[in-house]
Amino acid sequence: MNIVDLEILLPAFIAGLLVLATHVPLGMKVLARGIIFADITVAQIAGLGVVVAGLLRLTEYPLAVQVMAATSALLGAELLTIIERKLPEVQEACIGLLFVLAASGSILLMSHDTKAGEHIKDLLVGQILWVSKTQLIATAILTATLLALWSVVNKRFGSMGFYTLFALAVTASVQLVGVYLVFASLIVPALATHNLQRKRQRIIIAFAVGSSGYAGGLLLSVWLDLPSGAAIVWAMSLVGAAVLFRNRKRLAN
Q1: 233 Cβ partners below 8 Å, 6+ apart?
Q2: Contact, 186 vs 26, CB < 8 A?
Q3: What is Dmax (Cα atoms) for the chain?
Q4: Residue 40's pLDDT band (boundaries 50, 70, 90)?
Q5: Is the pLDDT of residue 3 over 90?
Q6: What 3-state class would DSSP assign to 111?
Q7: Integer Cα distance of 46 and 202 in angstroms
Q8: Positive or negative: CA dihedral 194, 200, 204, 210
Q9: Percent of the chain beyond pLDDT 90?
């Protein structure tokens, strides 16, 4: 069993909390709108932007990478808006197809890269244990801005406004925690608490589910020498399942 190093785990846990700050309310909105695969699709499209930035040799310029990822995610948001308006009857199928195209596009673009496997793994499961202070500060500023926008104009958001906010949130988080954890952070807390009626109670419990998953997954990844991103996904899912069934049992009685 490895020794817990708080200098590594604490920044990673803070990164998880920052992701949850935007993804918990956004995930509830995604669940309510019935567009479950929109989150992982936008995350994958943002990841495609990161791949393109790498091919253009922009990795030494973090701001340029961020701009490229954000531009890709916003393009994805525009496509989702068009699909919702023009093809509502097959919306989920189109969103799924967009995900496959973005994922396979990333593989095609990296097909001649000798380290392609490593890059794809980083994109999917992230490198949360190696998050930097600069990343945390930039993400914290963006998170505060997005939450302020959400609180002010949430009820007046149209489809494009929602998808734009969603795309910007996902752009930052996918580079911190990877595509899989973005999906888990959006869906698991929202799903675990979907049968709770009181909004404030639901937000608190959903955030507790997410933060417990990050804490438990990070500890397991250190103790058992497991990939941190995958361990967090499983830990959060197990906590979410326990909360969901507990709520169902309590409401049935």
Answers
A1: 180, 181, 184, 213, 217
A2: yes
A3: 59
A4: confident
A5: no
A6: coil
A7: 29
A8: positive
A9: 26
